[in-house]
């Protein structure tokens, strides 16, 4: 018997939040000292969606536009972000992670991957193969999200 889409959706909703919580905890544990969780989330977002607007960052982090603007200023002053005028809107700004900011994100990512490896190493090879194949199947289903692209272009 093959599980229905409804049953699969239920399992995804039950399991993915557990995995995301683990990843978030590890990323937070491995962020650079003195960086708040919201600041780190801004760096992570901009590392993936370079050149995003302040509005896109505010929507992602869930804080007001003035707050994210102050946060961006702080990250610019720390050499972790760069703020540039948007080419398509003279009043808007585009935010990007600097090489130093990218290095901080990559270090946290690498440490988090190592923690995930430890967890996944408790499974046998067949189970890991199943997880790998499942993740590869899900990437195109959820990775080409037009909503994410629209959010980042704001």
Offer a few descriptive terms.
mainly alpha; two-stranded antiparallel ribbon; Arc Repressor Mutant, subunit A; 154 residues; 7 helices
How much of the sequence is in beta strands? 5-15%
Terminal CA distance reads 45 Å
Please give the share of residues in helix: 55-70%
DSSP strand count = 2
Class by alpha and beta content: mainly alpha
Shape: globular
Low-confidence stretches: none
Provide the CATH topology: Arc Repressor Mutant, subunit A
CATH class: Mainly Alpha
Q: Tell me the Rg in angstroms.
A: 18 Å
Order of helices and strands: HHHHEEHHH
Count of the domains: 1
- From the 3D coordinates, which CATH architecture would you assign? Orthogonal Bundle
**CATH superfamily label:** Winged helix-like DNA-binding domain superfamily/Winged helix DNA-binding domain
Number of helical stretches of at least 4 residues: 7
Mean pLDDT: 89
How are the strands of the biggest sheet laid out side by side? 1-2
Specify the biggest β-sheet. Answer: 2 strands, antiparallel
């Amino acid at each position: 018997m093959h599980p229905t889409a409804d049953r699969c959706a239920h399992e995804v909703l039950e399991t993915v939040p557990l995995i995301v919580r683990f990843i978030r905890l590890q990323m937070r544990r491995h962020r650079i000292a003195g960086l708040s969780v919201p600041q780190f989330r801004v760096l992570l977002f901009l590392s993936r969606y370079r050149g995003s607007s302040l509005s896109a960052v505010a929507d992602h982090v869930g804080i007001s536009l003035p707050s994210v603007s102050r946060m961006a200023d702080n990250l610019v002053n720390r050499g972790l972000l760069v703020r540039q005028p948007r080419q398509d809107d003279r009043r808007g700004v585009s935010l990007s992670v600097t090489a130093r900011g990218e290095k901080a994100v990559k270090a946290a990512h690498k440490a988090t991957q190592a923690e995930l490896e430890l967890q996944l190493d408790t499974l046998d090879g067949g189970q890991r193969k199943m997880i790998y194949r499942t993740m590869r199947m899900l990437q195109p289903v959820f990775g080409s999200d037009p909503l994410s692209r629209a959010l980042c272009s704001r």
